[in-house]
Inverse folding.
DNA sequence: CAGTATTTGTTCGTATGTATA
DNA sequence: GTATACATACGAACAAATACT
């Protein structure tokens, strides 16, 4: 018995494992396997898809890293929740690997999104949102110059804004656009140049604008804040990171 | 307070394969393995990381799907280019699996990004960009009511705008935010209600605004265009897709 | 609280397909 | 055309974690 493939081009995507990945993804995309669906056990699924268990496991592992599947040892393999927060989590890992000028590209995109998110947060002026922002702002003040605490409070502060519009995709993307490594680098830079008070002031302005429900002001304050960081980062990108562009 | 993250309640990340994934990713993130680096052959790398060849293959396959590694049979395994267009390609596959209200979330985010991209395109008023837009606009007109051709021209048209700002992250994200399935659905809807001329007119307005270098107009025309589609999609989301929101 | 069945995790050995010199 | 180096694939066996009775 010759398992002749459907004469696909020798491009990307040949091989039984790659086929299995596609087939499983199609089953999920078509809705046949909805969120939480339990997959057949590896032995059966392998037989069903016509490949060995080892090869199938490669497919499952790949889809597991992509957060499409969720594998629980001793239990079984399930389709994930398929929520934006889940499916876009790998995007965060991806942006973590970007370097050089592409880090600035992250900031440029963030600059296009987060001011809008802050404006929406101000429009609702939700009491919980305001309280959460206040908490992180206080944490930021109490943190002194401890970088790790500052980074955490900063991340939490911006995440409150990111989730205020109630859009899971927006929240996940904003998360991906400000990686922890860059955030850490920024706060160390802020501390080194003694600009902690300015940084806290910028956050306070955003907080105040949202607290009083001023959307325009929230948008402006957020934009200014992001550009402050973007500018500093642009000037302090190590020359090693400054990869020369070769024409496309 | 913060939900997920931090706490290791569910032991995600145990196991030799998961460890290998993390180790390889760290080597790439640290820059030790830069773009294009050739990895040791599977046998050696497995020995080096202290796991079997099969388990290592699972790790490599997963990172290959994530576009961090690139495997070439008979040759070897290499670190990818690590460019945004490469690393953010899985994000497109991810958004392809979103359904129901989360599809509208994609549109909301796109609405925050693409008008800005169109404005930037207008600011430059690059001759090549204008010509490329014209080409796709003509294609869209010549396509009649053939949906596949319309979808392709439409995708190409918006991609010209997406890449005009010269930001790879922005381009990749805009690509991810408008999936081919939704695009196909939209054009079929447009054809069904006999709104092909309106759709072409909206594209023509965007084209004209960019061609004359009017950034404000380009921004407005793009926003209107996206909202047209967003509104239609909101009204035509199958009731089955209309998942009830439970408060979080 | 056992003990047992079920399911994924991991390894080894071996054979085959593919690109390159 | 041949040799070599490498990834691809399979099957079987045992370990570890979980579920169930």
């Amino acid at each position: 018995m010759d398992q002749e493939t459907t004469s696909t081009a020798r491009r990307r995507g040949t091989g039984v494992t790659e086929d299995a990945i596609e087939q499983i993804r199609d089953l999920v995309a078509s809705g046949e396997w909805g969120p939480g669906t339990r997959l057949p056990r590896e032995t059966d699924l392998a037989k069903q898809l016509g490949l060995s268990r080892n090869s199938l496991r490669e497919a499952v592992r790949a889809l597991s890293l992509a957060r499409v599947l969720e594998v629980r040892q001793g239990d079984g393999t399930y389709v994930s929740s398929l929520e934006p927060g889940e499916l876009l989590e790998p995007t965060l890992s991806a942006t973590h690997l970007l370097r050089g000028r592409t880090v600035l590209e992250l900031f440029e995109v963030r600059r296009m999104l987060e001011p809008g998110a802050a404006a929406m947060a101000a429009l609702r002026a939700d009491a919980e949102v305001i309280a959460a922002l206040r908490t992180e702002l206080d944490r930021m003040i109490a943190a002194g110059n401890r970088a790790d605490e500052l980074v955490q409070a900063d991340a939490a502060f911006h995440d409150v804004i990111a989730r205020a519009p109630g859009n899971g995709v927006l929240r996940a993307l904003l998360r991906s656009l400000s990686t922890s490594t860059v955030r850490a680098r920024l706060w160390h830079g802020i501390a080194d140049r003694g600009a902690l008070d300015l940084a806290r002031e910028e956050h306070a302005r955003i907080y105040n604008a949202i607290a009083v429900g001023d959307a325009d002001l929230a948008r402006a304050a957020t934009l200014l804040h992001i550009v402050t960081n973007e500018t500093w980062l642009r000037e302090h990108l190590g020359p090693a990171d400054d990869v020369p562009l070769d024409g496309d």
